[in-house]
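Dear colleagues,

I hope this message finds you well. In preparation for our joint manuscript, I am sending the Acyl-CoA-binding protein (Acanthopleuribacter pedis) sequence together with its predicted structure, so that both groups work from identical material. I would be grateful if you could confirm receipt.
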Amino acid sequence: MSLDERFQDAAARAKDLPSRPSNEDLLKMYGLFKQGTSGDVSGDRPGAFDFKGRAKYDAWAGLKGTGQDDAKEQYIALVDSLANG
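The corresponding structure tokens are as follows:
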């Protein structure tokens, strides 16, 4: 199975995890997914009153410079660890 196939499989499995991940893990998953699919963050950081948008942006921005394949591997590993408890 190719990296992209494994990544898409992990993204599908992430929707059916046995328990809801912590907010920290959800932000990690978001950042890794975005880095893996889109590369480095772009656009302006959301305003101070958009707490959720700002947290998501920061999670993605924290991965700046991480290669897309590396981010996909980290995403797969995180989903696997959350799926196995």
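For the figure legend, we might mention the following. The two ends are 24 Å apart (CA to CA). Residues 3 and 58 are 26 Å apart (CA to CA).

With kind regards,
E.M.
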